[in-house]
Amino acid sequence: MQQGTLMRKVKSKSWKKQRYFKLQEDCMTIWYQSKRTGKTESAFSISDVETVREGHQSEVLQSVAEEFPPERCFTIVFYGRRGNLDLIAGSAEEAQCWVQGLRQLIEPRSFPLTFALVSCTWIRDWFQKADKNKDGRMNFKEVQHLLKMMNVDMNEDHALRLFQDADKSESGTLEGEEFVLFYKALTQREEVLSLFQEFSEDGKKLTLLELVDFLQQEQLEDEGTEELAMELIDKYEPSETARARHVLSADGFLMYLCSPEGSIFNPQHRALWQDMSQPLCHYFISSSHNTYLIEDQICGQSSIEGYIRALKRGCRCLEVDCWDGPNGEPMVYHGHTFTSKIPFREVVSTLGKTSWGNSSSPLPSMGMSPPSSHPQSAEGSWLCWPPAVQDPRGQGPWRRWVAQGASLSPTPQELKHKILLKGKKIGRLEDTLDGPGDEAPDVSDDDNGAEAEEERRRAKVRGTQHGSALQKDKESLAQALSDCVIYCKNVPFRGFQEACSHSRPSEISSLSEAKARKLIRDEGNEFVRHNAWQLTRIYPSGMRTDSSNYSPQEMWNVGCQIVALNFQTAGTEMDLCDGLFSQNGCCGYVLKPPFMRDEETLFNPSDPSSREGPGPITLTIQVISGQQLPKVANSKEGAIIDPLVRVEIYGVPADQAHQETKYIENNGFNPHWDETLQFQLHVPELALIRFVVEDYDKTSRNDFVGQFTLAFANIKPGYRHIHLLSKDGTSIPPSSLFVHIRITE
User: Fold this and answer.
1) Are residues 89 and 206 in the same domain?
2) Where in this chain does the record put each PI-PLC Y-box domain (predicted)?
């Protein structure tokens, strides 16, 4: 359609405006204009889009759910801090057309030649930014301005020579393909070409056998290398003739190195690759704190967007703090603060729609205690009900395996598509299986006794504000809620000896970060042993009112499974969290090393020699070059970064280290370092490697440019690209580092 597709742009329940949306002919830009005035309001590049959500998967679209069906609604989510774009199409078919079309354009797996397309997008974006008068061509002055925008400080004579070489029409301007030629000359990768020629006999192509040699000698691929070589040629060689001859050109070689197969992250570990049949306590679980908050802990906004973002990020342990609201309607917010409130039913609806989008792994939820809400209303078919009793919705026993006997230590595999509630429980799991118990509910030290204090407050309010009949109903509902707490009964922590004598695998204790640190310092081995058979949750200090985070690494070092972080706060701590859980299909569960799953283990993170297994390994990283690094946010116009690379090791105390390269002056476009950094790792199974690019500043603190974090277990040796992420964990294509990795014992 020439005019575009007419859709409603929604900002709130009362703000719904009709706009025309159109994908430009370049297939890289979308603009939209007002139906009434015809004036173009905005435009955005496909490269700015992170994902597309279908249905009512935003707070705004949920507010109009009764008015518009989910089949017509979708949300465009942008990288960085830019707000979402919520849209309502005229029909379900129209919505699907846009959703599927956008996904085809933005998802790398939709195209075999991803790197080529990303580069094409990058070229078009820069051309449009630098073409000041919008005449579709660029003179040399505009090219000079473009180089500044692209972080390049180039000698004017050299820039003019590249410009003239690309100006085939000799018109004094660059158009279309001429600009592409200029860009290719600008981005010539000498270090990659040199590597290519080292294995190519004629310097022009890699034969199948030459590519096999490279894969075996440098990339350390040891199985099926000939089949892999054929696959890479078919996938990344742009020339049909070369593909037919089973050879790889220099362009195809570069595309391979920039592809997932050429990434530092082992592509096989992106999928679900770990054993999921171990007890829950044998896994690290991606966990959030006060998930509903998207700002600070005192006055911040509560929003279902917090749950959506956390789940999309792979989080599997959410926090839902429920309090009595108007007319007995439970509300979710941070108690005793000024944070805003959201209805409990909206949270439940959101969890039902988004919990299983990225992962089918079980979803433990913390602090679920709606005193006036029957738990069956909370999507009962997804709740983990007592194994030997009927699902209250009449659907029969929820798992066939329990017919042979209830398990106190279920596995993620057995609990797929189930929500586990953590909370106080009347009696024990065994009592639930046998019938109602009469044991008083346990109260943990979670949040410094906040749960106990709130329980007493609620009891007082109930006693003074309601009659005995209503009180009886609430007591009945409390029993029903207690019955929902199966494998995560909240119990106070009174020491490892007490836990060993009286606790059960179906119970869980919550510890503040300060208490956890003291236990790590004083009883490290006992802590590891405890976490081999029971779940432990760690939560941030109450002093972190700004929603800052503590380091999760020291908690993982002793095997704590549920290390709750403020997902809304970007920084090193969330980089480590994303780095650990980016593996195993991003399911939110990562299997702990064998020596942390043994209840008799001798391992203590403060003494690396206590780990059973081979000795230390040496990690050698040659930082070769960088490509198209982004400018520092809010930098002055024309400013060019002076990049350096710092490699940080996070793990047991003996492995904590960092080293950095020198800085390269005035070159964020294609800096070359060629520096080698070396680290010794005593417990590599727990190590996380963080690559950070910063803009050097001799008078003040360096500015953040980009980072990438991954577990040591996921590293692929050889010549690899590291695709950088922004401060909030989103991709910033095509910014990358080129490195050479070696691992020796």
Assistant:
1) no
2) 481-597
